[in-house]
Specification:
alpha+beta; three-stranded antiparallel β-sheet; 1 helix
């Protein structure tokens, strides 16, 4: 069995659409079960504070996280879980 890096992302044309870019949310490898089967996650990431939906890894890394950092840096008491 070849090594597959954790966090590997594979296209999922049937995935739910990202609530930000509308592209299908890819599957991400999150682990390997004791029997050797790969465990995948295809529910995306929490898109708050951009919206209340789920987003793809690209939008999470490049839009959501950036917005959270900006909000925290402007207001130390801001609760982005509102």
């Amino acid at each position: 069995m070849s090594a597959i890096p954790m966090g590997k992302v594979v296209p999922n044309k049937d995935g739910k659409p990202c609530s930000i870019c509308q592209e299908p949310i890819a599957r991400e490898m999150i682990g390997i079960h004791m029997d050797g089967t790969i465990i995948w996650w295809d529910e995306g990431h929490n898109a708050r504070p951009i919206n209340d939906g789920r987003c793809c890894k690209f939008c999470n890394d490049n839009v959501v996280i950036q917005q959270r950092i900006l909000m925290i840096s402007k207001d130390k008491n801001y609760d982005y879980n509102k």
